[in-house]
Amino acid sequence: MPDGAAPQFRPGFAALRGALDPDLGGIPRPNSRTRPRPAAVLLMLSDSDRPDITFTERAHTLRHHPGQISLPGGALEPGETPVEAALREAEEEIGLPAAAVTVLGSLPEAHVTVSRFQVTAVVAQWDGRAPIAAVGLDEVADVHRIGVTELTDPAHRATAALGNGYRGPAFVFGELFIWGFTAHLVDHVLDVAGWSRPWDRSRELPVPRRFHRDRAID
Asked: Residue 146: beta bridge partners?
């Protein structure tokens, strides 16, 4: 149990540590017709009195998902486990030492269509005090820490919409639009922790061009 978390957040951390629900709620799963590459992302919750989640803004020069808001992560290297890969990528991208992270659990693999990755989401906590910033500038343009209270505020929730018929959860903070695979993961983890609040799912917002560049959904 994280000592720094305010009392109202402690049951949520306990729920995440105890059992992460395997139902990914609409996130594509691997199938026999795809040959995805294994990858991992790190969903980091700070255990302060106002927990937050750390997001990265992908470099705008990347081939896949340029400029999108995502989680630290990347492809597994030979012999790596998803946890090892997620921790290594977090250190390479935002300078977070693996020793500062406590892993709570992992979600089942999910398939990311455009990049053909088979991704394991590793859920972890950290004290929120270690300095982090965009280190791998060829991959990460910026780092954004957004509080759980803000993420669950109905004013920041919407349904992301694309012209191809895609609909999915979104989190909107001014110029930042979190959608796709990342939003599904965050939405799911907030639900498992019991932190979610009701929001207007009929509120549809188009995904801004800079966050999808006319590519297929992630």
From this structure: 53
* Residue 82: how many other CB atoms lie within 10 Å: 22
Residue 217, classed as helix, strand or coil, is coil
d(CA 207, CA 212): 7
Q: Give pTM, 2 decimals.
A: 0.85
Residue type, 207: V
Mean pLDDT taken over the chain: 84
95 burial via Cβ count (<10 Å: 0-12, 13-18, 19+): middle
User: β-strand 37-46 against 73-75: which pairing, if any?
Assistant: antiparallel
**What span, in angstroms and rounded, lies between the C-alpha atoms of 215 and 56?**
19
For residue 210, the tally of other CB atoms under 10 A from its CB is 12
Residue 64, both tokens: 């896949």
